[in-house]
Amino acid sequence: MDSPKAAPRARPLSPHLQIYRPVLSMVMSIVHRITGAALYGGTALVAIWLVSAASGPSAFAMAQTVYGSIIGQLILFLYTWTLIHHALGGVRHLIWDTGRGFELQQREFLYRLTLGGSITLTIVVWIAALLLRGA
Q1: Does the CA dihedral 118-120-121-126 come out positive or negative?
Q2: Which structural domain, as residue segments, surrounds residue 105?
Q3: Which of 9, 56, 66, 93 has the smallest count of CB within 10 Å of its CB?
Q4: How many domains does the chain have?
């Protein structure tokens, strides 16, 4: 005699982005991971530029033309922001490693400081670079 088959149990669904309301801590965590991955591409651009400089004047001139274009400048600007943002995120994590900054208000302050600081420092770096280039 066959035993009756049990009805399949419904598996619990894990909450995901469709369930949670995005909050600053979630967004900053995701952005930190994305900037870390994007640094691979930006570092490849720096390596290409260095290899072109070592390859001779014609290769370097071509790289300078590409990097000096509007799209090239935009990519370099975003790479600068990515590098600074990821570095400041690392400083934030270093602060947390000391056991500080875990209160809600402190965390929010560090998130905002990371975001505002990365934007401000990127603009300052680019203004300084443009002023030095023109001098």
Answers
A1: positive
A2: 24-134
A3: 9
A4: 1
Residue 105 has pLDDT above 90, yes or no: yes
In a domain, 130, yes or no: yes
- Ligand-binding annotation for 86, yes or no, is yes
pTM of the model: 0.82
28 close to 114: Cβ distance less than 8 angstroms: yes
What does the chain look like in DSSP terms, one character per residue?
Answer: -PPPPPPPPPPPPPP-TTTSPP-HHHHHHHHHHHHHHHHHHHHHHHHHHHHHHHH-HHHHHHHHHHHHSHHHHHHHHHHHHHHHHHHHHHHHHHHHHTT---SHHHHHHHHHHHHHHHHHHHHHHHHHHHHHHH-
